[in-house]
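It is worth pausing here to work through a concrete case rather than discussing structure prediction in the abstract. The textbook approach is simple: state the sequence, then state the predicted structure, then interpret. We follow exactly that order.
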Amino acid sequence: VQLQASGGGLVQAGGSLRLSCAASGRTFSNNAMGWFRQVPGKEREFVAAISWSGGSTFYADSVRGRFTISRDNAKNTVYLQMNSLKDEDTAVYYCAAGRSPYGSRLGESYDYWGQGTLVTVSS
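Step two, the predicted structure:
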C-alpha cells in the first residue's frame, strides 16, 4: 500500500498550489483521507480531512477559506487546493488514509501515510 503525494513546490505569497495524493495497492474509497503538515522542529499539524464520500470536510482554522480538500474515489486520489498562500504555510505536506470512513483531526486516526511533498512560500 502506498500513498504518493505530489504537487509541492516554490510559490510566491498569494499564489496557489494543488497537491495530489494517489493511493495504490488498495482502494480507500471507504476511508476518510487527510492532509497534515510539518515544519522541521515542530509538531505535525492537521490541515484538512474529508469523509469517505466527500460529503463532509474539516479544516484547521489557519487554512479555512483558503484551502479546499476534495477526492475522486474512481481515481483513488485526494487533492488539496491551496489558495492565497502565506509564508506560514511553508511545510512538508503529508496525506494520510484514515482508519474509519469519517474525517478526524487526530493523526493517530490514520493508518497509512504518504512520503510528503514540500511546499515553500516566499514573500
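Step three, interpretation. The CA atoms of residues 6 and 20 lie 5 Å apart. The chain has a mean pLDDT of 96.
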